[in-house]
Specification:
The protein has helices at about 15-20, 30-45, 85-100, 135-145, 165-170, 185-190, 230-245, 275-285, 300-320, 335-345, 385-395, 400-440, 455-489; strands at about 150-155, 195-205, 205-215, 260-265, 290-295, 350, 360, 365-370, 375. By secondary structure, the protein is α/β, with parallel strands linked by helices. The protein has a six-stranded mixed sheet with strand order 2-3-1-4-5-6, with helices on both faces. Strand 8 and strand 9 form a beta hairpin. The termini are far apart. Bound molecules: guanosine-5'-diphosphate. The site of guanosine-5'-diphosphate has 12 residues, from helix 5. This is Septin-4. Keywords: Coiled coil, GTP-binding, Nucleotide-binding. It comes from Ilyodon furcidens. Belongs to the TRAFAC class TrmE-Era-EngA-EngB-Septin-like GTPase superfamily. Septin GTPase family.
Length: about 500
């Protein structure tokens, strides 16, 4: 144990692992208190570090990075890439440290490998003692960042409302390069297609697999009755696939393709939502988080935007459509956050503008639309709610959209699935029991009442129960009669 000193060359490759550990305590003669004091002094002299070592590990290679030539790692490798003979002394050292100073005093506390995100790093915390579990969120953060994120966004609304342009503007991509726009004749008989585009985006080391589900042809045919059926079926299919995967054997690597959000585009040219919009939203609101958008807001005056928003909100309420509800703020949430949330709630439906091109005006370049009378800026909050939508979708509510999908929409689907599966099983069992019954063989009524959930089934069950009881009574009477007959003989 003592042979592993802090100066070992090899340890320099693992700056974090060793640097944060205090020197090994050898001497039993010195009191623990004295040792403790000396160590604190030594560490304080070097800004809480051992001499010659920087305060935090280099961000490009945190402790978990194995050296380039590290051997093949076992399924759950240790974090330093060392073999067990090297890691053991380290562990012992740490354990001896913990047993002496638990809970660790600030100067001796091993530094968190998260550098700037170290929850104990703030100056006011320097004099406090901690066990260390405030790093738990960091551990979760690190794991989830490694795993990456997925998000599935669906867009629906009539052709030409600017869906593809808005998606490109939102995610700064060009997803629709190869899109073929159909002419009027082709659209007469067109059915709704479902097209999925998946892109991987990375920002500051965080990876997002973003899937955009497009619904070309939606509302385009002459007869649009139930044209949202395809959309509904698609959402159900993704739930079904997830349900199957979840019930299968390999549950570890399930791909989540459930639709987390539907951006529903409403035309700026009508008087509020069209009947197809209302019917579609009504059909889908229990299955997906709907966010209504007022498309092409630059074609409306400010007063028109306000009156159309009002009309859309009224009709949504009148028809009992449950669009995505922003979570209620906790009362202890800071004022700024509460205000932001209120602005979001009041802005529904978001009035949006999209553009695929950059325009230049007054020496500035930005995504916008240039008209003879001026330019509109996509990201200007005075011109549209685009920024509000993007912030809400990506920065503040992406996880909540996923949570609501999982906890509400998918749970509903799952409960319905389980109910109908149980009902089918009960019916099948009853049918086979009845067959057995007719054949006069032994039966094992009653069936569990909890599994029967329709009135008809309950009535059948109760009748069956009555029959069974009557039969039991009959058998008992017969037995008694036989006994009394044999007694009298
Ligand atoms: P999609 O069929 O719904 O995907 O619509 P597109 O994104 O292909 O847009 C159809 C047309 O509307 C194109 O000519 C776009 O340049 C234009 N467009 C897109 N977004 C806007 C917008 O916010 N305002 C205006 N005025 N036109 C837009």
């Amino acid at each position: 144990l003592s042979s592993l000193s802090i100066e070992d060359q090899e340890d320099l490759q693992y700056p974090y692992a060793m640097r944060d550990l205090p020197p090994v305590i050898h001497s039993a003669e010195k009191s623990q208190k004295q040792d403790h004091h000396e160590m604190e002094e030594a560490l304080t002299a070097a800004n809480g570090r051992l001499p010659g070592y920087p305060r935090t590990p280099p961000s490009s290679c945190p402790v978990s990075c194995p050296p380039a030539s590290s051997p093949t790692v076992p399924p759950r490798p240790n974090h330093t890439g060392r073999d067990s003979s090297q890691i053991l002394p380290l562990k012992r050292q740490l354990v001896s440290q913990v047993s002496l100073d638990s809970p660790l005093s600030p100067a001796l506390r091993p530094r968190s490998p998260w550098g700037l995100l170290d929850p104990y790093d703030s100056p006011e915390d320097q004099d406090k003692e901690y066990v260390g579990f405030a790093t738990l969120p960091n551990q979760v953060h690190r794991k989830t960042v490694k795993k990456g994120f997925t998000f599935t966004l669906m867009v629906a609304g009539e052709t030409g409302l600017g869906k593809s342009t808005l998606i490109n503007s939102l995610f700064l991509t060009d997803l629709y390069k190869d899109r073929k726009v159909l002419n009027a004749e082709e659209r007469i008989s067109q059915t709704v297609d479902i097209i999925k585009h998946t892109i991987g985006i990375e920002e500051k080391g965080v990876k997002l697999r973003l899937s955009i589900i497009d619904t070309p042809g939606f509302g385009d045919a002459v007869n649009n009755t139930a044209s949202w059926k395809h959309v509904e079926d698609y959402i159900d299919q993704q739930f079904e696939q997830y349900f199957r995967d979840e019930s299968g054997l390999n549950r570890k690597n399930i791909q989540d393709n459930r639709v987390h959000c539907l951006l529903y585009f409403i035309s700026p040219f009508g008087h509020g939502p069209r009947p197809i919009d209302v019917e579609c939203m009504k059909a889908l609101h229990e299955k997906v988080n709907i966010i209504p958008l007022l498309a092409k807001a630059d074609s409306l005056t400010q007063a028109e935007v306000c009156s159309k928003k009002l009309k859309i909100r009224e009709e949504i309420k009148q028809f009992g459509i449950n669009i995505y509800q922003f979570p209620e703020c906790d009362s202890d949430e800071d004022e700024d956050f509460q205000r932001q949330e209120q602005i979001l709630k009041d802005s529904i439906p978001f009035a949006v503008i999209g553009s695929n091109i950059q325009v230049e005006s007054k020496g500035r370049k930005f995504r916008g639309r240039s008209y003879p009378w001026g330019v509109v800026e996509v990201e200007n909050p005075i011109h549209s709610d685009f920024l509000l939508l993007r912030n809400m979708l990506v920065r503040t509510h992406m996880q909540d959209l996923k949570d609501v999908t999982r906890e509400n929409h998918y749970e509903n689907y799952r409960a319905q699935c389980i109910q109908s599966m149980t009902r089918m099983m009960v019916q099948e069992r009853k049918r086979s029991l009845r067959e057995k019954y007719r054949e006069g063989s032994e039966v094992d009524f009653p069936l569990p009442l909890a599994a029967v959930d329709t009135d008809m089934e309950r009535q059948i069950f109760e009748k069956d129960e009555e029959l069974r009881k009557m039969q039991e009574v009959l058998e008992r009477i017969q037995e008694q009669m036989q006994q009394s007959q044999s007694g009298s003989c």
